[in-house]
Amino acid sequence: MLKRKEDIGLSPYELKFRGLHRSGDIRMTLFEIDFEKVNESTIRSVEELLPYKNSETLIWLNIDGLHDEKLMGELVGTLQIPADILSDVMEPGTRPQMEEFDNGLFVSIKMMELNEGKNRVSVDNLSLVVMDNLLVTFQEEKSDLFNPVRERIRKHSKRFRTLGADYLAFALLDVVIDNYIFILGGLGEKIENLENEMIMDPGRETLKIINLLKRELSNLGRYIRPAREMIIGLVKSESDFIAPVNEKHYKELQDNINQAVELLDYYRELLYDELNIYHSSMSTRLSDIMALLTIFSVIFIPLTFIVGVYGMNFDNIPELHWRYGYFIVWGVMLLIAIGMLWYFKKRKWF
Amino acid sequence: MLKRKEDIGLSPYELKFRGLHRSGDIRMTLFEIDFEKVNESTIRSVEELLPYKNSETLIWLNIDGLHDEKLMGELVGTLQIPADILSDVMEPGTRPQMEEFDNGLFVSIKMMELNEGKNRVSVDNLSLVVMDNLLVTFQEEKSDLFNPVRERIRKHSKRFRTLGADYLAFALLDVVIDNYIFILGGLGEKIENLENEMIMDPGRETLKIINLLKRELSNLGRYIRPAREMIIGLVKSESDFIAPVNEKHYKELQDNINQAVELLDYYRELLYDELNIYHSSMSTRLSDIMALLTIFSVIFIPLTFIVGVYGMNFDNIPELHWRYGYFIVWGVMLLIAIGMLWYFKKRKWF
Amino acid sequence: MLKRKEDIGLSPYELKFRGLHRSGDIRMTLFEIDFEKVNESTIRSVEELLPYKNSETLIWLNIDGLHDEKLMGELVGTLQIPADILSDVMEPGTRPQMEEFDNGLFVSIKMMELNEGKNRVSVDNLSLVVMDNLLVTFQEEKSDLFNPVRERIRKHSKRFRTLGADYLAFALLDVVIDNYIFILGGLGEKIENLENEMIMDPGRETLKIINLLKRELSNLGRYIRPAREMIIGLVKSESDFIAPVNEKHYKELQDNINQAVELLDYYRELLYDELNIYHSSMSTRLSDIMALLTIFSVIFIPLTFIVGVYGMNFDNIPELHWRYGYFIVWGVMLLIAIGMLWYFKKRKWF
Amino acid sequence: MLKRKEDIGLSPYELKFRGLHRSGDIRMTLFEIDFEKVNESTIRSVEELLPYKNSETLIWLNIDGLHDEKLMGELVGTLQIPADILSDVMEPGTRPQMEEFDNGLFVSIKMMELNEGKNRVSVDNLSLVVMDNLLVTFQEEKSDLFNPVRERIRKHSKRFRTLGADYLAFALLDVVIDNYIFILGGLGEKIENLENEMIMDPGRETLKIINLLKRELSNLGRYIRPAREMIIGLVKSESDFIAPVNEKHYKELQDNINQAVELLDYYRELLYDELNIYHSSMSTRLSDIMALLTIFSVIFIPLTFIVGVYGMNFDNIPELHWRYGYFIVWGVMLLIAIGMLWYFKKRKWF
Amino acid sequence: MLKRKEDIGLSPYELKFRGLHRSGDIRMTLFEIDFEKVNESTIRSVEELLPYKNSETLIWLNIDGLHDEKLMGELVGTLQIPADILSDVMEPGTRPQMEEFDNGLFVSIKMMELNEGKNRVSVDNLSLVVMDNLLVTFQEEKSDLFNPVRERIRKHSKRFRTLGADYLAFALLDVVIDNYIFILGGLGEKIENLENEMIMDPGRETLKIINLLKRELSNLGRYIRPAREMIIGLVKSESDFIAPVNEKHYKELQDNINQAVELLDYYRELLYDELNIYHSSMSTRLSDIMALLTIFSVIFIPLTFIVGVYGMNFDNIPELHWRYGYFIVWGVMLLIAIGMLWYFKKRKWF
C-alpha cells in the first residue's frame, strides 16, 4: 500500500498515477477572478485553458482526479508545469512537501475531512501549484471543504485579485489547517469526557476506547506533524512566489499548525494519564479482591482446622467427653475470629 | 469549543468575534500619562479618542470586552490598527503570538488569575497593541491584575512617560508572568505537601489527588509553554517598537518565563515520583497480603489434611485405637507448624 | 564482528578487505551511455577501462565483490580514485557516509533487499564514486535491485547522458530508499494486522510475535537512520559534483528518507501500543482468574466451616438432635451463599 | 514562597528585598589587590569606598546580607551600578542569569555548600558585578567557600592584579562549580553503594532511600541545569568585560558545568535502574510466594477431598469395610502427591 | 573520587597532580621520524629534548605517568606548553576536551582497553598536545594500544613525516575510537546471545545479567558520549594545527565515534527489550501459577463442601440412609468437576 513493488525505480519524470482509486471522471473547475466580477465554469479539455493564459485576471483551476496520465502530459505542455512536479502530484502517498521551480511554487499537504454521518475522517492529498496569477489545485476526490473560500471569492473578488494566487493558496491551506484543529477538537472532547467518566466508574470497555482514541490520535499525528514541517519550510523559504504583503498570513498558518501540534501533544498526554488511571484502578481492584480473599481465608482456615480436630475418630480424645466441650470450642473460635478482624482493621485492610 | 465549524474558512480580515461570552458591556478606560501628571477617564465611543491622537503624552487605552464588531471597525479607522490584527484580537482561543505591523507591534498572551475564594484559576486572553506613545490592551473580562501597575503609573508617571509604550507593555507582561509563577508556586506547595503526607500513609484518596494535580499542571503548561515561545520570539525580533533602553527588561521577562517552565518540569517530575511511590506502596501492600495468606494457608493446609485422615470412617485404622494416638497427632502437627514458621522466618516473609 | 582486533590501527590508506565473505569472483559490468545508444559489456581487468577514460560518453562501472586488493590498487592508478576512499569501500561494516575528494564524490549507503522466498531481508553495502561522466558502484554481492534503472537507461539513454553521473547516482539511491519504504511497508502491514488480531484474541504467541517485529524494526532503524543523516549531509554539502539541475532530485531523496524514518517511528509507536494492550489483557486475565477464585473461596469457605462444625464428635452437641437440624443448616448455608453472591454482584466482580 | 503576592507588579527599578531572612547585620569586606601586596579590611558605610574609586589597584568588595535597601541605594550612587541590576540582586529566588550593562557585567548563580556536620546542602544566591578593576559580590549569608581563593589572592596577588576583575570572578565561579561536582560526587557514592547493597538484600527500606536520593538529585538539578545555561550564555556573549586572555578560563567553566550535568544524568539513570531492580525483586518475591502457596494447595486440596469422602456417614460405603481400605487410600494419596511434585519440578516452579 | 575537597579552588595554572596513582616511575619515549628513517629512544630528563627542538624531523614524545610536578614545570619552560594546559593534563578525571593555544592544540580523551585475561575494561586518560612537528602524548599507565601505530611509523615513516603531527595525532585517536567499537562489539555480542537464550528459558539469573550489562553499557556511554562531543568540536574548530590534507581523516573520526554512539543506543534498546521480555515472562509465569491454583481450588472447593455435608453427625439426614446415596454423591461430584473443566477449557485457561 505504501509503495508497490512495480513503482520502485520509476523515473521522477514519468507521469504515472501511483495511487489506488483509478475510477471516476476527471473534473476541472475554473474560477476567473477579476476586480469586479468572478466567472465560474467547468472545462473538459486542457485546450480550453489556452485563452486564460497570460490574461490579466487571477485564475484558479481545480482538478479532481489524478489518474489521467494523458491530461497531465498536456498540462506540462500548456501551463509549463514541470513533469517532475506533476509526477509528485500523481503520487497520493507523498509526504507534505514544498518545492520551488522556475516559474512557480509547488506545495502538497494532507487534507482531512470529518464525514459527520459516518463519524470517520477521510484523508486526501491536496497539491497546489502557485504561479503568476494562476493557482492549480489537485485532489483525488471532490470535496466541499473549500466552499467557504469559494463564497469569499464571490463576495470579495477584489481582495483576491489584488493579493494574488499566493493569497488564494493561503486561504485554502488555512481551511485545511483549521479543519485539523476542528477534528482534533472533536477527538479531544471525547478524550476529556472519557476522563470524567473514568473517575465515576472505569469499566472494562474503557481500555478499548482509550486504545481506539490513541490509535486515532497517532494517525492524525502522522499527517499533522509533517505538515508543520512543510509549513515552516514554506515560511523560511522566503519564496519569490509569496508576496511580502502575504507573508504575515503564512506566518499565521505556522501559528495555527503549531497549535494543532500542541493539541496533539496535550491530548496524547491526557490519554496517557487516563491509561495510567485505568491501570491503577485495575490494580486497586485486584488488590481489593485479594484482601477480601485473604481476610476470609485467614479467619476460617484455623477454625476449619479446629472443627476438623474434633471430627477425628480417635478412641481417646478427652475433650469430646467434656460437658461443655462443644461450647468451649465455639468460644475459642469466636475469640480467634475477633482477634483476626481486629488485626485487619489495624492494618487498614478494609 | 476549540474551533467552531462556522468559523472555518473565515477571512483573516473579517472582524467577527469568535469567542463564547457575548454578554456584558464594552468598557474602555483611558490613562493619559505625562511627565508630571496622570489623567484617568472612561470613554464611551471611539470618537472620544480623537483629541488624544498624536498628542505628546503617553496613552494607555484598555478595552474590556471583545464582541463589539462595530467598535473594532472604528478602531481600524481611528487608530490605524490593521483589520487582520484586530481579527486576531477577536479570537480569544488564539495561541500566544507576536506580530509586527507597519506602525506597531501586536502581542497576545494568556493571563491567569487565581480566584482565591473559589480556589480556581480563570484564564483570559490579553492582547496588546504597542504603537508610538500609545498602548491599546484588550481583555474579554475586567480584571484587577493590573492594579499594581496602575498604582506605579500614578506614582512614577515620569518614568513611564520617558520609557514609553513598550515599557508599559513590559510592565503588564511582567505582571502576567509573575502571576504564572505565583499560581505555579501555590500548586507546587500542594504537591510538596502531598509528598510528605504520602510517606506517612498513602491512602486511597492520594491517587485521585495526584491525578487532579497532574491535570491542573498540564493545563497550566498548555498556556505557559507557548507563552515562552512567544516571549523568546519577541526578544529575538529586535523590533523597532521596543526601544534599546527597554530591551533588558524584555530579556528579564524571558528569564522569568523560563523559570516558570522549569518549575512546571520540576513539579511534573515530583508528581511522577509521587505516583511511583504510590504504586510501589500499593504493590508492597498486595505482596504483604499475599504473604500473610500464604503463611496461613501453608501452615494449616497439611494440618487440616491430617485431621481429615483421622476423621475417615474405615473399619480398620490402627492408629485410632492407640492410647495416645490423639496426642501424638497433636505433636506431629505442632512440629510441622513450627518447621513452617522457621522456614518463613528464614526467607524473611514476616 | 563489528571490528576485528587485527583491524584496529590500520592505516586509512591501506587497501585491505575488512569484511567476511572473501569467496566468489569479482564481476565488473560496464554501461557506456551515449545520447543515442547504450553499450553493455563485462570486463575482466582494469586495463580494459583505459579506452573509456576521458571519453565523451557517460560510463557506469559496477563492481560486485570487494576482496581483490590488487584490483583496488589498480583502480587507484587507472581512475585516480584516492586510496583512502577505496579503503572505505573495502570496509563493508562502514556507516553510511559521504565525502568529497579532489575529482569526485564518494557516497556509501546500506542496501536492503527482501528475498521473498526466504522472507528475510539481506543487507549489503553500496558504495558510489561519482566523477565527471563516470560512476563507479561497488557491492559485495550481485543484486537485481537495479534492474529497473538498467531498463530506464536503455530506454532513455539521452536523459541519462544529458543529466550525467550524478543523476545516475540519484536513480540508484532512489531505488535503495524506495526499497526501504517497500520493506517497511511489508513489516508495517504485519504490525497492523496483529493489532486487529489482538482485539479478537490476544494469545500467548502474540508476545513473541511483537518482540520479533520490534527486533526487526529496530534492526531496520539501524540502517535507515544513519542513511537519513548521510542524505541530509549530501543535500547540504552543495557539492560541485551534483549539478544544479539535479539538486531537486536529491531533495526528493531527502523527503523519501524522511518518510521512511517517520514510518519507523509510527510503527514503533504501534508496536509499543500493542505491547501495552497485550499486557493489559494479561493483567485483566489475571484479575479475572483471581476474582473467580475469590468468589468460590469466599462462598464455600464459611460453608465448609459450618459442615465441619457438625461433623465434630462431641458428646454434647444439642443441634445434632434437633429434628430439622440438618435442614436448618442447609437453609442457613443457602442464605450465606446468596448474600455473598449479591455482594459480589454489587461490586461488579462478575 | 516562590513569589509573594505583594511582590507581583513591583517595578524592576525598585530596591526592595524580596527574600525571607531579614535578620543579621550587613557585612562588607574589602580586598585591595596590587602587584606586590594585598590590603584586607572591613568597611561599615558606602562612603568608605570613595577613596578606592578609580584607583589603579583591583578591588573586591564582598557584601554578606541583601536586605539593607538604603545601602543598596547608596551603591547605585557611589559605584554607578544600575538600580535594575541591584533590584535583581535583592531577589534571592532569581534564576541564574547574566546581563551586560553600560559599565559592567552582572552574573548570578546558586552556590551550594555541604554542611558536613548536619549532612545537608545549604543553597545561597551569589551575585557578581564585574566592572573595570572592581568586583562586587553579594551573598545572603557569610560562607567559607571562597577561603581558598582568598588564600590564592594573598599568595599570587600579581596574577590577580594582572588578569583583572574578570579573572577573579572566574576564580569564584570555578569554586562554585567545583562544589557542585563535589556534592554530586558525595551523592553519587551513596547511589553506587546502594546498588551493591541491593544485589545482596533489597529490604523494604531500600525504596525509601531510593526515593530520598531521587528527590535530592532532582533538587540539585534545579540549580545546576540553569547554571549551565547561564555559563554557556556567558561564554557565547563575548562580553567586553571578559578579557581575551581569560576567555579560555570561562570555556573551562563550561566544561566543568557540562561534567556536572552529565553526572546528574548518569546518577539519575543509576537510580532509575535501581528502582527497576527493586521492583523486579519485589515481583519475584510475590511470584515465589504464590508458587509456594500453589504447590501446597494443589497437592493437598485433592488429598483433603479424598479423606473427606471417607469421612462421610453414608450407611453404604463399601470401601470402608475393605480390610486394607485405609492403607490403599494412603497409597493413592502418596501417588497423587508424588505426581504433583514431579509436575512442578518439570515446570521449574521450585 | 570525582573531586577531592582539597582540590576545590585550585588555580588553573597550578601544576598539581589531581589523580590517585602516584606510584611508578615516569617513562618518556621518543620517536624521531624522518622521511627515510625512524629513531626510537627513551629519555630521562627534559633537557635531553633540547637538541630535538626546531629540528626538521617530526617528534613524538610519549610520557607515561603524570605525577611528577617538577618535570611538568620543565616542560612549560622547554617546550612552551602553557601551564594551564599541563594543569589539565594532570587532572585524570577531566572530561574529553579540546583547546587551542598560541602555538598548539590540546586534546584529551578517555582510552579504553580490554584486559582479555581479566575480562574487564581499564580506562585511562590520554592527553595530546599537537604542535609544529611535535606531538606530546600523556598517559597515566603504559599501554600497548598504540603498538600498531608504532609499527606503521616504522614502515611508512615518509607518510607520517609528510602529513605531520596532526596526522600522527589522528592515527592515535583513531586507535582509541576503534577500541571503543571493538569493546562495544564484545559487549553487544553478549547482549545478543542473551536474547537468544531468553527465548529458550528465561531463568532467574537472566535479570542479574541484564542489570550487569546495562550498568557496563551506561558506564561506556559516560566516556563515549563526551568523546563524540569533543571530536565534533575538533572538526568544527577548523584549527590551524590541523592541515587541510588531514581534515578528511578527522571527519572520518567523527563518523566512527558516531557509529559508536549509535551502537550504544542500539544495545541499550536491545537490553531494554530484553528486560521487557523477562518481565513479561515472569508475569506470564505468575498468571499461569494462579490459573492452576484457581482451577484446582474451584473444582475441589465445592466437592470438599459436599463430602463435608455428609460427614455431619445430625441424627436426621435422610440421604445417608438411601441405598445408593454414596454413589449418587459421587455422580453429582463428577458432573460438577466435568462442568468446571469444560468452563475453563472454554475460557482458555489451560
TrEMBL record, chains A, B, C, D, E:
Subcellular localization: Cell membrane; Membrane
GO cellular component terms given for this protein: plasma membrane
Official protein name in the record: Magnesium transport protein CorA
Source species of the chain: Proteiniphilum saccharofermentans
Catalyses which reaction(s): Mg(2+)(in) = Mg(2+)(out)
Membrane topology: Multi-pass membrane protein
Chain's role: Mediates influx of magnesium ions. Alternates between open and closed states. Activated by low cytoplasmic Mg(2+) levels. Inactive when cytoplasmic Mg(2+) levels are high.
UniProt-listed InterPro entries: CorA_cytoplasmic_dom, CorA_TM1_TM2, Mg/Co-transport_prot_CorA, MgTranspt_CorA/ZnTranspt_ZntB
Pfam families: CorA
Keyword Transmembrane helix attributed: yes
Molecular functions (GO terms): cobalt ion binding; cobalt ion transmembrane transporter activity; magnesium ion binding; magnesium ion transmembrane transporter activity
Primary localisation category: membrane
Family, similarity comment: Belongs to the CorA metal ion transporter (MIT) (TC 1.A.35) family.
Claim: Signal is one of the keywords in the record: no
Membrane-crossing residue ranges in chain numbering: 289-312, 324-344
